[in-house]
Amino acid sequence: MEHLVIIRGGGDIATATIYRLVRSGFSVLVLETEAPSAIRRKVAFSEAVYEGKSVVEDMECILVKSLSEAYEVMSSGKPAMMVDKDCKVLKEVRPLALVDGILAKKNLGTNKKMSEITIAMGPGFEAGKDVDLVIETMRGHNLGRIIEKGFAVKNTGIPGMIAGFDKERVIHSPAEGLLYGKKTISDFVNQGECIAEIVSDEGNLEIKASISGILRGLIRDGYPVTKGFKIADIDPRISEKDNCFTISDKARCIAGSVLEGILYLEQMKKEKERGES
Fold it and tell me: Is there a contact between 153 and 185 (Cβ–Cβ < 8 Å)?
């Protein structure tokens, strides 16, 4: 496919990019791990790994097992997803662009040899060396800025401030075990209320809400978590209840920058070819 874009990762931020690119006429193939750990599951195409398909807003992403199946899905105007964390599919296809949307805060193997155009989201990549462009993912004035040389802001470990709360918004697992939710995404929770339980050989451990607000994200039932693993996200703004099911402003901003980056590098390539001819 002439306009094929491969996206590494199908979490909520990457999903916004997938959505934007498909709507803009690109064919999109998403590569995921065997066990995605998205917190904002209601707006993450990565859920297709577990369910076979995932619908975000008005778009459906379909899990496939082969490149031929992927072509069939993409030909129908939908993004396709494959379990392929090591990008083995690149042995069979050369995409127009490859976008790293894993947001691991470090480079898990993406490099400029993978495609004519390579773009990465967030810290861990050097623009101009590891990839062509890096997109800033830190909230603030530079969110979505396209970086042609250098790095995005280093990970601070502190979430962006919302309604006066930052690190309190995110809950990490205090122990190892299997997590099971006691509340559902979009529920209102009070500070100190049990939202989930971690089950282990040492017994069950209640996970309590760190603040009052809307439970915006919660890792799926039965997921094996480790100590310190991010498991939940609470938004203190009660007005955000319906937005648990729609792509966020931050994600849309980053998605727009990825689209711009692809078009910009395509144009630069065409100008270079015209200059050489």
Answer: no
List the domain range (segments joined by +) for residue 185.
167-236
User: pLDDT of 9-51, one tens digit each?
Assistant: 999 999 999 999 999 999 999 999 999 999 999 999 999 999 9
**How confident is the model over 123-170, as pLDDT tens digits?**
999 999 999 999 999 989 999 999 999 999 998 776 767 767 778 899
Give me the CATH number covering residue 171: 2.40.50.100
